[in-house]
Design goal:
By secondary structure, the chain is an all-alpha fold. It has three helices and no strands.
Length: 55
């Protein structure tokens, strides 16, 4: 049984790391989905100025 413990520990750590990665990715995706587009926060002329289209 002692020879299996390192394998189980490694598998457990891999799953734990995978769960953490999925949580971080999910959080980033959720934040991006909730972010308002610039057109809701800025006027059209401000958006054009930022894009360099309006002097």
């Amino acid at each position: 049984m002692e020879s299996i413990k390192p394998v189980v520990d490694t598998a457990f750590q891999a799953v734990k790391t995978g769960v953490e990665v999925v949580r971080k990715v999910w959080s980033l995706m959720e934040a991006a989905a909730e972010k308002k587009p610039p057109s809701e926060l800025l006027s059209q002329s401000a958006v054009r100025r930022i894009q360099g289209e309006d002097g």
